[in-house]
Amino acid sequence: MKVLLSFPLVIFIFLALTACGRSPFTNENYNPSQLVQGQNTLQGALAFPQQGLFIRPFWRNGPVVGDEGQLLIVVSDKDGHPKNPSGQLSLYLWMPDMGHGSYPVSLKQIAIGVFEASEIYFTMDGLWDIHFQILREGQVLEEIRWPLTL
Amino acid sequence: MKILLAFIVLVSSSLTWAHCPLAFSGSGLCGNVEWVSGPFINKPSHFTLTFWKNGDSTHQPINVEQELKVYSWMTMGHGHAHGGPKMTLVKLSDGIYEVRDAKFFMGGMDGYWDVRVDLLQQGQLLDRAASRVKFQE
Asked: Domain boundaries in chain B?
């Protein structure tokens, strides 16, 4: 049943992000003069090779300095079917050039293989890494890094 | 003895008179940050912000005519500084504001957080005061 529910959601996200015109995820209340907007440079997916899983992150808000970023994350197998990782998915922000992180990211699972990340705060412009981890009993099983420049 | 008493009264009254935790010298205002919840690291904190006329020992809240901007500011040991997550500011009554979603973190930083309060006029900074954040254990 959950798979049945998650499938239309993934289709909706795909159509929303590839349709012409403004994304419905665009926040009309932005004041661009006060924000630094980053570029979504990811082509394709990020891979967790040991688990044979792929991560496709979709920005619902951001990436941006000066406001909360929100990310929809779809985890799927090699055939593109949404799948839960074998362990707990977690992510955190790190600024490698400055040597510090940010506020803890909130992560909520909304369907099989589909997660919603909020409270993503890039507090300054520059190079940031988003680290995706799969954890089990506090141990990191796999980790991948998504570099972003804001 | 009378001189000693007079001295104590004078000192205590001058301290009351001078109590101005956030001093906005250009606007003649004082302010205070009172924590309702926190301040915490890595979870939301909540405080009230009150304004009164500088010199008013009763701290009667008064309306702030200027535009108000409240935000967190991290100053790091190596000289860099940056802001923090956006806070939610709600006016409760004249001179009294509720500030929610104050989100502080250290994340490996060697530095300190301030709550900064800016008074703006037509978008230009008129006055700024800051309150150092001392975290709950």
From this structure: 21-132
Domain B21-132, CATH: 2.60.40
Backbone dihedral angles phi then psi of residue B66, each to the nearest 5 degrees: -80, 165
A102 interfaces chain B, CB cutoff of 8 Å: yes
Chain A residues with CB-CB distance to B108 below 8 A: 99-101
The amino acid that residue B30 corresponds to is C
Tokens found for residue B21? 């935790």
Query: What CATH number should be reported for the domain whose range is A2-19+58-149?
Result: 2.60.40.10
Selecting from B42, B106, B108 the residue whose C-beta is nearest the C-beta of A99 gives B108
Cis peptide before A63 (omega within 30 of 0): yes
Model ipTM?
Answer: 0.78
Is the CB of residue B103 less than 8 Å away from at least one CB of chain A?
yes
A103 CB neighbours in chain B (<8 A) are 42, 84-85, 103-105, 107
Inter-chain contact B80–A103, Cβ cutoff 8 Å? no
Tens digits of pLDDT across chain B (137 residues): 566 655 555 545 444 456 899 999 999 999 999 999 999 999 999 999 999 999 999 999 999 999 999 999 999 887 888 999 999 999 999 999 999 999 999 998 999 999 999 999 998 999 999 999 999 76
Element (H, E) at B127: strand B124-132
